[in-house]
Amino acid sequence: QEYGAVGVSLHIGISLVSLGIFYMVVSSGVDMSAILLKLGFQESLVQSKVAAGTSTFVVAYAIHKLFAPVRISITLASVPFIVRYFRKVGFFKPPAAKP
């Protein structure tokens, strides 16, 4: 509850940026299947997500979904620091004292 709005907003922002980056990469002609295999993704998972003949957006979205654990980790790790910073500069009120 303490980090909810910031967490959701940050995660949506990271997701939109991620999807945009993957769309740019896929539309520029980079072979993402080879890159994903080098990163350690299983071949069956890559082939099911990046099927031949699909549109650029569908491929970019599939790759975006493969990187969901990375986006979630970034969100969970950074939200407390962001909230602490916003409280320090006076943008957020300090947490309410617990009775």
Automatic annotation (TrEMBL):
Regions that span the bilayer: 6-26, 70-86
* UniProt domain DUF1279: residue ranges: 1-81
Q: Does the keyword Transmembrane apply?
A: yes
Q: Which UniProt keywords are given for this protein, alphabetically ordered?
A: Membrane, Transmembrane, Transmembrane helix
State a GO cellular component annotated for this protein. Answer: mitochondrion
Name the family: Belongs to the FAM210 family.
Q: What is this protein called?
A: Protein FAM210B
The organism named in the record is Hipposideros armiger
> Which gene underlies this protein?
FAM210B
